[in-house]
Amino acid sequence: NAGVTQTPKFQVLKTGQSMTLQCAQDMNHEYMSWYRQDPGMGLRLIHYSVGAGITDQGEVPNGYNVSRSTTEDFPLRLLSAAPSQTSVYFCASSLGQFNEKLFFGSGTQLSVL
Amino acid sequence: SQQGEEDPQALSIQEGENATMNCSYKTSINNLQWYRQNSGRGLVHLILIRSNEREKHSGRLRVTLDTSKKSSSLLITASRAADTASYFCATVLTGGGNKLTFGTGTQLKVEL
Fold this sequence. Notes:
Chain A has 113 residues and is mainly β. Chain A is 0% helix and 51% strand. In chain A, the strands form two sheets. In chain A, strands 2, 4, 5, 6, 9, 10 and 11 form a seven-stranded mixed β-sheet that branches. A four-stranded antiparallel β-sheet of chain A has the order 1-3-8-7, with no helix packed on it.
């Protein structure tokens, strides 16, 4: 099993550009989520999904969109990148939506110039 | 705002010593989890303790939970250089749905 796969690993954008961070899991997990990690801030939840077709906002959703058309994939879209979105992004999944441990991808390091 | 705060922010010990990290949180929880992050990598789940549990063990890891003080501790016994990493606590809030809220982490360095 590959687990949780994130692509790309590194990305540099210019302010105003758009891009999609990809996340896929092959564990048939219902719950998927996106976090961003900034120095001194820990991880903060951006968006999450409890199943295909269902998404909801986390702590810091502004500037990001998500969709969940399949159980396996949960892409994160930046419509108009801003320097404040420079961060390391982690996708995570769990078997169920209630209190289960998270499995993390290896992260995407994004720089917005 | 951060739900969990780890203490200390950084810890440096010699191989073979024990390492203790603490986590404090603000509101009632369903469970508390500890994760490890090696430099440049994703987080790895270590242990989960539920609100009705007081202590849990997994190998060289021992976690305690004191809900009256809203605090938890992670003890790593007989540390090894490979334990060098950042350690995060994460909480699932009572009535707060299923979202994990992470603390700011403790950076542990184990020297040979």
